[in-house]
Write a structure and sequence with these properties.
single chain; alpha/beta; Rossmann fold; 4-stranded parallel sheet; 11 strands; about 20% strand; elongated; binds 6-O-phosphono-beta-D-fructofuranose
Length: about 325
Amino acid sequence: MGNIKTIGILTSGGDAPGMNAAIRAVTRTAIYRGFRVMGIMRGYYGLVFNEIEEFTSKSVSNIIQQGGTILKTARCKEFTTAEGRKTAYENMQRAGIDALVVIGGDGSLTGARIFAEEYDIPIVGLPGTIDNDLGGTDRTIGYDTALNTIIDAVDKIRDTATSHERLFFVEVMGNRAGYLALNGAIASGAEAAIIPEMETEIDQLADLVNRGFRKSKNSAIVLVAENPTTGGALGLAQRIKEEFPEYDARVTILGHLQRGGSPTAADRILASRMGAQAITALDEGQRNVMIGIKNGELVYVPFSKATTHTRNIDLEGIELVKMLSI
Ligand code: F6P
């Protein structure tokens, strides 16, 4: 246990289903092992503006099944400045917090790395994002639930696409990563996935049309990863209108509904295992690592590796989508 007596916990960045299960696991494991737990509201904002309260085992009752985060979340501008982080550190000290557990994605863990380096604080991260875009882990908390939400939506769109014999572009989130689009396409039996990882390789839209995808079918669903460069699904629909006017295309942007909902069993289990491991990590003297999962085993991933995006999406999935949709 070393010098750590009190552990602060916060959720930051975009919320993800399973964050509550992680908060519950961190809180209860910490209390079980004799630590005090302080809940920090609204991510780093709560550290800067001193919104901190003690958490008991009861504080996390009846939340494992809830989407969102009971701690609330935010993207805090003040914390990106040295002055903001100084105030955050002072508030942390006043509250007696010796270590932090940060649940969030890329930006949140980058903030954690900088804060830990500046003030020599033990911080352990948990990968909380629907995007599945962190390095050193096979899965992030929230990804499985978002995928299930996507396939539910696509199953419904399929009914109307088939009836009207239309081409549908369904845009999904992903923060410049194609995991939700690609695996959503495999799981929903979509005709194609258009992802940022393939952007420079080929013209994915032209490839789709040139495949003659409507020769054997009267409707098609294409999952498109959000992409500010190409304009995502709306950008593709515009290109269809101009370059391939013979197609009757429609767009559905799934948006923030992908971030909500009760977490799946897989996300609850992942969040519970990772949350408990965060306390073990601090107990073992680990610092500045994210808990990841590799081949079913929990692992420690340095923040620098978790946030460098070296993970490569398995592009064989694109071929699988094509082959299975003939
Ligand atoms: O990182 C999670 C995420 O949902 C991304 O997929 C998406 O690009 C972004 O957050 C949306 O952010 P906001 O909720 O701030 O619009």
